[in-house]
UniProtKB/TrEMBL annotation:
<feature type="region of interest" description="Disordered">
    <location>
        <begin position="261"/>
        <end position="280"/>
    </location>
</feature>
<feature type="domain" description="Ketoreductase">
    <location>
        <begin position="6"/>
        <end position="184"/>
    </location>
</feature>
<dbReference type="InterPro" id="IPR036291">
    <property type="entry name" value="NAD(P)-bd_dom_sf"/>
</dbReference>
<protein>
    <submittedName>
        <fullName>SDR family NAD(P)-dependent oxidoreductase</fullName>
    </submittedName>
</protein>
<dbReference type="InterPro" id="IPR020904">
    <property type="entry name" value="Sc_DH/Rdtase_CS"/>
</dbReference>
<dbReference type="GO" id="GO:0016491">
    <property type="term" value="F:oxidoreductase activity"/>
</dbReference>
<dbReference type="InterPro" id="IPR002347">
    <property type="entry name" value="SDR_fam"/>
</dbReference>
<comment type="similarity">
    <text>Belongs to the short-chain dehydrogenases/reductases (SDR) family.</text>
</comment>
<keyword id="KW-0560">Oxidoreductase</keyword>
<dbReference type="InterPro" id="IPR057326">
    <property type="entry name" value="KR_dom"/>
</dbReference>
<dbReference type="Pfam" id="PF00106">
    <property type="entry name" value="adh_short"/>
</dbReference>
<dbReference type="GO" id="GO:0016020">
    <property type="term" value="C:membrane"/>
</dbReference>
Length: 280
């Protein structure tokens, strides 16, 4: 599959996986539209990977603005729904508004943006929708009840969308499930009260380089994979266990949940353990 000359719209493009994908698509000759909340950060990415890239900043949950934004983006050949926010809090402590923020950002926003570009793709009988879900979209891991709910939901939406549009309209739909990638996802994650965590965690710091993640995503797309698992080690093992031995996986995760609950009862702030220790 060639992206040369294709207009590729990437959300969450100012850093992390989004910025790495921008560089990877630019190297393939794509014409980029870069979106995120901060124009200055997007401009820095554009200056590095494609100086003439279109910069289109917006808030993914500004529902009233999204139709205008989609119109400004123009004809889109490939939409990469990457923008999102994570979580690091136990359900028993988490405020309802935190769930609303995560579900609106990680599920409703990519659905609505896809719905806005979909009619044009259907009319042209071509296009490609790419959704960045997560390994947490396949397994229900601790400290991420809202995040898992949204990412599971995104997989369901994309699977159902693919069934409707792949053969009928020639539109490809690719779901991506990254594991831990060295980005600011943990630092930006929401705590129980809705504040940002402000610090990374061991799994993220030991995670995959964003450039390698982007390379694997484009390689999976080139190979025609409809779902691309971008994980290694214990995370890849856990994703496989969800199908091969779910009861074993549930037991492992429940033990980690019990450990975190004990930390909470002792007055501490529950902190994630390395995945290699949790999934063992």
């Amino acid at each position: 599959m060639s992206f040369r000359g294709k207009r590729v719209w990437i959300t969450g493009a100012s850093s992390g996986i989004g910025a790495a994908l921008a560089e990877a698509f630019a190297a393939e000759g794509a014409r980029l539209v870069l979106s995120g909340r901060r124009r200055d950060a997007l401009a820095q990415v554009a200056a590095r990977v494609q100086p003439d890239a279109a910069i289109l900043p917006f808030d993914a949950t500004d529902w009233a603005a999204l139709p205008r934004v989609a119109a400004e983006a123009g004809v889109i050949d490939v939409l990469v729904n990457n923008a999102g926010i994570s979580q690091r809090s136990l359900a028993v402590d988490t405020r309802p508004e935190v769930y609303r923020t995560i579900v609106e950002t990680d599920l409703l926003a990519p659905i609505w943006l896809t719905q806005l570009v979909l009619p044009g793709m259907a009319a042209r009988r071509s296009g490609h929708i790419i959704g960045i879900s997560s390994v947490a979209g396949r397994i229900g891991t601790v400290l991420r009840t809202g995040y898992c709910a949204a990412k599971h939901g995104l997989i369901g939406y994309l699977d159902a969308l693919r069934a409707e549009v792949e053969q009928a309209y020639g539109i490809s739909v690719t779901t991506v499930l990254p594991g831990s990638v060295r980005t600011r996802v943990a630092a930006n994650a929401l705590l129980a009260d809705g504040s940002a965590r402000g610090a990374s965690d061991p799994n993220i710091e030991a995670g995959m380089d964003p450039a390698e993640c982007a390379r694997r995503i484009l390689a999976g797309i080139a190979a025609g994979e409809r779902e691309i698992l971008v994980a290694q080690g214990a995370e890849a093992h856990a994703a496989a266990l969800r199908f091969s031995d779910p009861e074993r996986l549930f037991d492992m995760l429940a033990r980690e949940g019990a450990r975190l609950a004990a930390e909470r009862e002792q007055g501490g702030r529950p902190e994630p353990a390395p995945v290699s220790r949790t999934i063992a």
